[in-house]
Each structure stands twice: as C-alpha cells, then as structure tokens.
Amino acid sequence: MLAPSSWVVVLIAGLSGCAAPGISALNYSVREVAQRTRGDALDAAEVALVNLDFVVARRDLAEGFLETRPLDGRFAGEAVDASIDGGRSRRVVQVRLEESATGVRVFCKVSVQAQSTQSYRLLSGERSGDDRAETTPIDRDAATTSEQNSLWQTVRRDKAAERAVLAAMLRALGDDAEIVRPPPSQ
C-alpha cells in the first residue's frame, strides 16, 4: 500500500500531464490586428511569408493556422549563429490566428532548427544496446535518401524574424491596417 505522501505525488503527476503549452505570448510573438477578419489576416500572413522567400506548406482557414516549409540558411542579414556548431540551420514559421473583440490576434513563431544528423549517427550504436558488428547497409539507412535520414532539432526561437514577419504582414494588410500589442494579461 502506498503512503499518503506517495498518493499526493501520483495525483500531481497525473493532473499535470505531458501536454505541450498552448499558444500564448510565452511561446509566440503576439499582435492584435484591428478591424480585420481571420481570412484577411491569413491572406496577409501568406503574402508576407512568400515575400520573405518562405514556401507555405499548410494553410487552414478554419483552424486559423499557417506553416511554412523549412527555409535553409540565415534570415535577413543575420550573423552566423555560433550555437549551431558550424552546421546547417533552417527556419520554420508558424502563424496562428484567434478572433478577438476588436479584430484578430496573430501569433507568430519562427523556430530555428539545427541539423543534428551526424551527432545522432555517432551515438546511435550506443543507444541500440547491441555491440555486434553485423549490421547491413539496409540497417545503416542505405534504402532511404539522405533527406529522409536527416535529423533536425529545434534549438531556439528567432524573435527578430518573428518581428520581421509581423511587419511584412502589416505592409500586406495595407495602409489602413493597425497592429497593436495586446494587453499583457492575454
């Protein structure tokens, strides 16, 4: 039988869950687009991303969601990122929309991903639990392309790129559009 303090730990672990945090100002740059519909804002976001050389991979008006394909390299004159060990990096943009009392709330996140394929392969033998040298080429990814075998890991957010996307979105909405910061409590 578990002691009462053990039940408390089990209860807290069960209630906290493993779900990722929802969209908020903690994990997205947030702006309020006054006097616009969700469709207008999504169209403007798509135009802004295309103008910044991104390719839209998924767009869903009902969900208020837009995501780009990865864009290799640096963004808009950015300096080389020393945290990426001289390897390749890429950006992925997510835009989410929520209707608000005055218009549409825009959530934008630019994730910087670093290629981690080499380090993953170096340690794959350690993770396998098998020290036999009897692996075949098919076991070593020979039946797939290098793109399929690439491993990308999100290393950080690019807040400067998020601001650039939001500014480009404002330009795409036109001269009468107004993007304001939402109140801090939201």
How does the major sheet shape up? 8 strands, antiparallel
Based on Cα principal axes, name the global outline.
Answer: extended
**How many separate helices?**
5
| Element-level helix/strand string | HEHEEEEEHHEHE
CATH superfamily of the domain at 22-75 and 87-111 and 158-186: Kinase associated domain 1, KA1
What distance separates the N and C termini?
44 Å
Low-pLDDT residue intervals, each spanning 5 or more residues: none
What amount of the residues lies in strands? 25-35%
Q: Return the structural class.
A: alpha+beta
Q: How many strands appear in the DSSP assignment?
A: 8
Summed over residues and divided by their number, the pLDDT gives a mean of 75
What's the CATH class label of the domain at 22-75 and 87-111 and 158-186? Alpha Beta
CA radius of gyration is: 22 Å
